């Protein structure tokens, strides 16, 4: 097998592994009593959309933020979605180490590119990184509001704690607006 064949196989292996994110649930919500929480992939998708929107509002690069958000939880195929309370008791590999293992056999450009994205998300301080972190928190807060609507009253703590961690003015403004809306308010203008 040639190096190109080996790299193609390693890259496809990584892509197939990412499919597991469509099946893996965000386990922190089980603590709040949510019986069927969203998947990691569902969370990452909306985080990328929110990140793009926040970047536009904050004058950051929307494509860069979407990329950071897309890859921010990809390591959870290997270590799972460890809720904050569980992290107190566990010592897990860094996201950079997990990512290095995930892409070890991928095409070198793919491996180095993905590793750079994850390292930047974990340690960067650019406006794009700040916005990406806010997008992750804002998505969690909005999801919590949706779970509150569904009757999961324990989601209130997640809503309040993630709201308190937001840094950008745009994320704070969107969080404030979200608290006064329902999950179907977006369609009301079309029902008139």
UniProtKB/TrEMBL annotation:
Q: List the coiled-coil residues.
A: none
Which organism is the protein's source?
Answer: Streptomyces stramineus
| Top EC class for this record | hydrolase
Known partners and oligomeric status = Homodimer.
Q: What's the name of the protein?
A: 5'-deoxynucleotidase
* EC code: 3.1.3.89
Residue stretches making up the HD/PDEase domain: 36-150
Question: So what does this thing catalyse?
Answer: a 2'-deoxyribonucleoside 5'-phosphate + H2O = a 2'-deoxyribonucleoside + phosphate
Q: What SMART domains does its record include?
A: HDc
Cofactor(s) annotated in UniProt: Mn(2+); Co(2+)
Q: Name the keywords, alphabetized.
A: Hydrolase, Metal-binding
Please indicate which superkingdom the organism of origin belongs to.
Bacteria
Note the InterPro entries from the entry: HD/PDEase_dom, HD_domain, YfbR/HDDC2
């Amino acid at each position: 097998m040639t190096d190109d064949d080996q790299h193609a196989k390693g890259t496809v292996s990584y892509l197939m592994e990412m499919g597991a994110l469509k099946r893996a649930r965000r386990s922190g919500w089980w603590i709040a009593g949510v019986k069927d929480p969203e998947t990691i992939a569902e969370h990452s998708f909306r985080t990328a959309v929110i990140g793009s929107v926040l970047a536009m509002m904050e004058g950051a690069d929307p494509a860069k933020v979407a990329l950071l958000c897309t890859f921010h939880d990809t390591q959870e195929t290997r270590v799972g979605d460890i809720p904050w309370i569980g992290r107190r008791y566990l010592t897990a590999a860094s996201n950079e180490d997990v990512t290095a293992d995930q892409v070890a056999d991928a095409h070198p450009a793919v491996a180095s590119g993905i590793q750079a994205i994850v390292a930047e998300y974990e340690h960067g301080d650019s406006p794009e990184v700040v916005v990406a972190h806010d997008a992750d928190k804002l998505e969690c807060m909005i999801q919590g509001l949706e779970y509150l609507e569904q009757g999961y009253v324990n989601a209130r703590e997640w809503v309040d704690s993630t709201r308190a961690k937001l840094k950008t003015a745009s994320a704070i403004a969107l969080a404030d607006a979200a608290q006064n809306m329902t999950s179907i308010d977006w369609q009301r203008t079309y029902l008139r």
